[in-house]
Amino acid sequence: MESRRLGANGPQVSAEGLGCMGMSEFYGSADEAAGKEVIQRALDLGVSFIDTADAYGPFTNEKLVGEAIAGRRDEVVLATKFGIVRGENGERLGVRGDPEYVRAACDASLQRLGVERIDLYYQHRFDPKVPIEETVGAMAELVGQGKVAHLGLSEVAPETIRRAQATHPIAALQTEYSLWSRDPEDELLPTVRELGIGFVAYSPLGRGFLTGRYRSIEDLPEDDFRRGNPRFEGANFERNLELVEKVEEIAAEKGVAAGQLALAWVLAQGEDIVPIPGTKHIQYLEQNVAAAAIELSDEDLSRIEAVAPAGVAIGDRYADMSPLGL
Known about the structure:
10 helices, 15% strand
């Protein structure tokens, strides 16, 4: 696995990371044992960049990741997040970015992960009640204390990024980016590139839709949150399936899977972009990792652009597009 640097002064990470959210929540039942096996196999394959958050589970995903990397800490660039506040029973309690919460959340994450330092610490969602300078200022204190190495932001506007960067260097911005979520190309990517900030693409497989494994809503577990996602609902599902079928056609000609083509496309958008596909299955992990070796020609990229131009997906990214969206 080749490596890429996140930002001008950020960490060197594997060109592809591993998103661990679905191992604990949202995508059907959790299987901690399987999740740990996937993480350890990812490390075996050279995937060094592991992504989690305190909100996943809630809280249980950090513990899972911490146990999975125990004894292999030096192989991992560990990223986690704070800001989406949840109760022990999963209650959604809003967003917080006040300095007191930042400090408490970091200490709690360090304990759950079983590590002394977080390599990349993101503000998961912006708190409109707290100036970004105050939040990032508190995060910068954690850097000074040695609890955090690098700072990140998730799902924020360009002006917020600029104000944050003026307070303390930001290593990475994490936002959804894929063949069916190309909004970052308008303002976010130009902004982070201007400022020397890396870009971490979550859901690079369109929450699994771009793999072609889902031909009907019934293919999803009953407790899967995607059943309430606008792009998976009713007529939107059928329209979006047409996009997948076109991607599958191009992928078949190249002798690769649709999901691999979609991942290769994200990787081809710039050396400063690192996708973090998630999975609960080793076979799909291995398939995703293999996508990093796929080379797309200019002709390939033109054909993909023709079938998946910006704005091609039908439906919003979330049922609720507020900062509370996960």
